[in-house]
Structure formats: structure tokens, C-alpha cells
Amino acid sequence: MQVYLPIAEMSVNALLVLGMGWLVGFLSGMFGVGGGFLMTPLLIFIGVPPAIAVGTQANQLVAASVSGVLAHWRRGNVDVKLGVVMLGGGVVGTAFGVWIFGILQRLGQIDIAITLSYVFFLGTIGGMMLVESSRAIVRRRAPTARRGKLHRHIWLHGLPFKMRFHRSKLYISALLPAGIGAVGGMLVAIMGIGGGFLLVPAMIYLLNMPAGLVAGTSLFQIIFTTAAATLLQAATNQTVDAMLALLLLIGGVIGAQFGTKAGTRLRGEQARLLLSCIVVAVALKLAWDLFSRPADLFTLTMGAG
Amino acid sequence: MVSVAKRRAVQAVAALGGLLLGGTVAANVWAQQLVADLSSHLIAITTGFTGTEVVLFGTTDGAGDVAIVVTGPRGSATVRRKERIAGMWINTDSARFEQVPGFYTVATSRPLDQLVGRPVLERHQIGLPQLQLGPRETLDPQELAAFRAALIRNKQRAGLYALTFGQVAFLGERLFRTNIYFPANVPTGLYNVEALLIRDGEVVSAQTTPLVVSKIGFSAEVYDIARHRPITYGVVAVVGAIAAGWAAGAAFRRV
């Protein structure tokens, strides 16, 4: 069944897009990540212009993170105060990212910027996760490994504007969560991803937040940064395809339910190892595209672009 | 929402009516040596649109060759060239063209080189080599030719410029017809369908028929709002996504 996408101005197979939404939803339910990092490259692969893939993905992530945060909210796993501080930085980061996005689009460098950020972030985070999870699996087999310190003090904890976050039992500078939020917001705008795969480790290792609160709180603030990104992308770059977002959403929501069930059968480090393999594979594929000679060296952009 | 679609449809029909009138008047001036019309003057892009075919048919007042030139709305376009920088393929040089048709195809009753001489082809922009694109920069001719070729190649890959010439088929001596195919990614706007009657290497009669490609229905509304009320569009997209996410979360609550 073919469906015409009004903003992307192309006709796609609805079942294919629903299937892609299902697959990414399945993986995100299984591993507890947004899955945007997989969806944007997949959309580009089926011929959606990168700019529209990113803008639409932001819209779809709003829905995904709302449905995700509900479950965490019911269990009380959301630190609203910390989330709001992150959000302050997040909105600034998003606005900055959308602005940069527009400039790069006019310069004709947006495609390479998107690909490069993907290769960099996915490569780094995926590589780190791969090392960490394989070590954890090895350590499980040899249980003599010693335990690290619970709480380390680095220069980041000496920053001004200290705030108390009761829910997370933290007393830290407000600049820290705001800064993390700002980086996350920029990723939403430029890469079309929620940034959970970057926010979660940052909140665990830089803020020393209780692990139980991390997923819920990061999802909570991702709702607002993706909403802001959708609004700004729609208003300034007109790259949000509501029809495409709707199709992805339906597939994604159903896939996520199956993924969550499948995820309970996996142990934490096994899930992380599997996820990091996928992340690294995507990074390698994108890097390959960047360095291999394209079939046609010329590209065409209609309009003022 | 409905009123937007209605207004659009009315506008499209009104524009079409005016153009048809103009077209008929113009045809009369040419003393009816050639009469041609389309099976449809409006291509409606609906949600289920996957491309369509329009039949052009007509009659001549005697033996001769017919060439059909279909030109989509003209606009500007940028062609960018990738070069290897630090091992990566990155856009570097670019060239702008101001008069690029969004769609272009030609159908003839005989191969182009047997039809007429080069000056006539150029005057009527028959055939891709004769298509005027309005380059803006004063690049050196060789560079310009490379960018121009790349533009046409990209358009051909998208299915918007014809790879080969269509065939105008004659039924008997006077009646002719040809099928024009429009793919799913056809740009919207006003198209010019030009039918030329050629005798002894000269164009003796021509008729221009308008064709409107327009988004109709849901996809038209979405596009309209996104273009003209982008903030409203963004707000609706966000609110819709929140509602959808909430509904999904509530529906699967037991999980």
C-alpha cells in the first residue's frame, strides 16, 4: 500500500514504514533507548531527505517518550526538579541546534554534518559500551573483580550555583544537568535522536544519579526537547512530515510492547553488548558511506536551498 | 480544514478555466492546422497517489510530424559537487540555475535528428540538450557543462526528466496520440504541454495546453498548513504526538 508523504513529497510503502517503526520500537523497548539513532539512518536509506528524516523523527520521539515516561511516572522514577533544570539547558541547546541546522542546510553541508555526528557519537558511545559490557560478562565469569569507589569527586562538582535535588539525593551545581541537557537538545535538533544513549551514561557517571531514576528523568526531559525541536524545525526549516511521523508512531508503539517483553529475558550486560554491537555496526556503515566514492559526485537541490 | 481544501480546489479550477480559455483563443490564431487536447487537465495528488498517465491526443490538417514538449513549473536549483577532503566526500563547488523546469519530457513521431534542424530545436527547447536552464554564475563553459549535465542526470534518476523520447503514434495520417507518464514525486504547479506540427523542417503550427498538478485532500491540507502556518503546524504536530503517546501508554498499561 503506497502512501504519499506531503512534506517529503514522495510516495512510500506504508507497510515498509510501519515495519521499520515496529523494528525500531522493538529494539527500543528491549534496550530502553529511544531508537532514533537507528530510525534516522533507516529513513535516509529508503530515500527520505535527511533534513526531513531528522525533523520528523523529533516529532515521533515526542510520542515515544510520552508513552515511555508514563510507566516510569507510575513507579515514581522521575526526578521532576532535576528534569526541569536539564530542560532549561535542553531548550537552549535545541534552539541553537535548529539554528545551526538551518545554516548548514543553506550551505549544503547538512548531510555531511548529520553523518559525521552519527559516526562520531555512535562510534564513541557504542565502542565504550562494547568494551564495558564485554568486561562485565567476563567479570561475571570471574567474580573476584574488586568494586570501584561509589562516589568520585572531580572538578565538575566544584562549579557554582549549587542546588539540592531531594528526589535524587544530590547536591550539585545546576550548571551540570543544564549542560548535559543542552548537549542532548543539540543532538535532537541536528541528529533527530532523543539523545538517551548519551544522556543516560552522562547522568550516571557525571551526576552520580541513582540508576533507578535515570531512565525516567531523561525521558521526561526528552519529551520537552523533542517537542521544542519539532516546533522549531516546523517553524524555521519546514522539515516535519506529520504523515510519516504518524506511520512510524503506530509501528513503534506496537513494536515497543513486544520489545519490552523480550527485554525481560535478557540480562543487563547481555542487552548492553547486543545494543552496542548494533550501534557500532550503524556507525561503521555510515563511516563507510562517508569514505567510499559516491556513485554520482553531483547532487541537486531544488528551490532556494 | 475542509474550507482550506475547498478554497484550494476552487482556486485550481478557476485558474484552469482561465487558462483553458486563453489556450483556445491562442489555438484559433494558428488556423486549426493542429488541434490537441489532454485526457485530463488536472493531476490530483491525493494520499494514495502513486503516479499517473495522461493521454494527449489530437489531429493535424495533413501529413507532417508532431513533437510534444511537456515542461513543469520553472524554479531555481543548486547543483553541488563532492570532492575528497581528508578522505571524506564533501560538497565543495556549486552552481545555481534559475530556470529549471521541475519536469521535462518530449515525445516525437520520428527521431529528433530526422525531424528538424538544430536552430528550430533550440528555439522551441525540444530535447534535453536544447533545454534552457538559466545558469546564474559565469562559470567557464567546461565547468558549466559538467554542472548542467549533472543536473539533468539527477533529474533523470528521479524520473522527472525523460531518459528517452516518447513515441507519438499516428492513427492514419491525421490522428495522433501519446501517453505522458507522471511519477509519484512529480512537482506541483502549472505545466505547459506544447504540441508542435512540423513540416519540411519547420514548425508550422503550435498549440499550448495547460495542465495543473495539485495536491488535493488531506495531503494538500497538511502541506498548506506546513507552508503558510508553520507555527500552528508545529503545535498540532506536538499536541498530536503527546496525545498519541499518552493513548499508547494507557492502552498498554498492563505491560
UniProtKB/TrEMBL annotation, chain A:
It is found in: Cell membrane; Membrane. It is a multi-pass membrane protein. InterPro entries: TM_pro_TauE-like (IPR002781), TSUP/Inactive_protease-like (IPR051598). Keywords: Cell membrane, Membrane, Transmembrane, Transmembrane helix. GO terms for cellular component: plasma membrane. The chain crosses the membrane at residues 12-38, 44-70, 82-104, 110-131, 170-199, 211-232, 239-259, 271-288. Belongs to the 4-toluene sulfonate uptake permease (TSUP) (TC 2.A.102) family. This is Probable membrane transporter protein.
UniProtKB/TrEMBL annotation, chain B:
Keywords: Membrane, Transmembrane, Transmembrane helix. The keyword Transmembrane helix applies. The chain crosses the membrane at residues 231-252. This is TIGR02186 family protein. It comes from Azospirillum doebereinerae.
